[in-house]
Amino acid sequence: MNRKFIYFINPISGTGNKSQLPGIIKNKTAGQHIPFEILPTNAAGDYTWLKEKIITESITDIIICGGDGTVNQVANGVRDTAVRIGIIPMGSGNGLAFAAKIPKQINKALEIIFAGNATDVDSFYINKKFSCMLSGLGFDAQVAHDFAKHPKRGLATYIKLSVKNFFAAGTYPFELILDGRSIHTEAFFISIANSNQFGNNFTIAPRASLHDGLIDIVVVNKMSRLRMIGAVLKQVSNGQVRLYEDKKYHHNDIHYFQTKKITIKNPGLAPLHIDGDPVETAAVFEIEIIEKAFRLLMP
Q: Same domain, yes or no, for 190 and 80?
């Protein structure tokens, strides 16, 4: 099969120096005798024009040089096409890339792209908004909102803001409706995950799979901050999916469900992020899986 690439480079994602990136792309791709084009990412996140270009120019692969937010925007723009998506991780977290075992080193990421092995991966809708990796309500969303406003990018800034918000964080009231049950709780945050990653190889939903047809829901309930550190570390290392049991629910610090759809009521208007980008919150969220949403180039 003849291949034809578009590379999208996000000039502001992450902290790395991208000045060498176009040259590496040109040399390596030309060496594979694959025609290609390099384009900047769209600051507004609008890729509605991309489907027509894919069809008229016979584009086979879209390669995203950026982070999870850029992957979200482009993947949503090319849904319902046969195009394959590759990632050269250049963001601050790179959660989807790391979940897919795509290395951060440019040359190694390109090797995976040139190999051409694509796998169907799931995504999900949250109030009809597309999420390809992980969305969240509460503490981690507030960090995302603060991070978006900060003049400096990168992991060090993210950690600094996480620590600051950790000591300031309060809980929010939520009602979760799934599988015919209604669960009321006070929680620091809720993660809605298709990937097992927060980013930077920090695992929040260790049983999550990119292609199992399920959304993983992780609820970090009200507890002392000291206790929360231990509970989250335990969750990261060996979080277990549990069936809901009313008598035991309020005796557990963290709850971990898998489902195809869920309603989350958010009367306290906890902040929201979608794939690491801050988004306006709502009082109710309808969340459902999108099976085989797009094709991802993976090892």
A: no
